[in-house]
Amino acid sequence: MTTMTITKEGRSHLRRILHCKVKVISKNGSVLVGRSIDISLTGISVMLDEPFDHAPQCIIMFEALSANQLTSSKLINVTVNAEAVYSICVGTTGFRVGFKFDRINEEALKSLRLLLA
Hints:
Layout: E1 3-7, E2 15-19, E3 21-26, E4 31-39, E5 43-48, E6 57-65, E7 75-90, E8 94-101, H1 106-116
Antiparallel strand pairs: 1-2, 2-4, 3-4, 3-6, 4-5, 5-8, 6-7, 7-8
């Protein structure tokens, strides 16, 4: 089950709280599984059990339920290239890793817009 709410802040792109399972596939093919924290058109924050090096290119994969109140909810699958921009230890709960989306194709952009609508 996914949950999503809007947060207001001074960023250039709207961020939404998003809780869903996320797969992070590194360049060498290793797969880490985490939980998303929030998302925008330009990136996503993910909680992982271990740190993730800054800047390595990776692939982010997740599926989440759109929460558009004007239409019925729909399961949205997203696969996008990304780059890790920070990794912060959060107490004993793991590492909050910020990923910036990179080279977003039209299909992924359309899916992100549906999630953020």
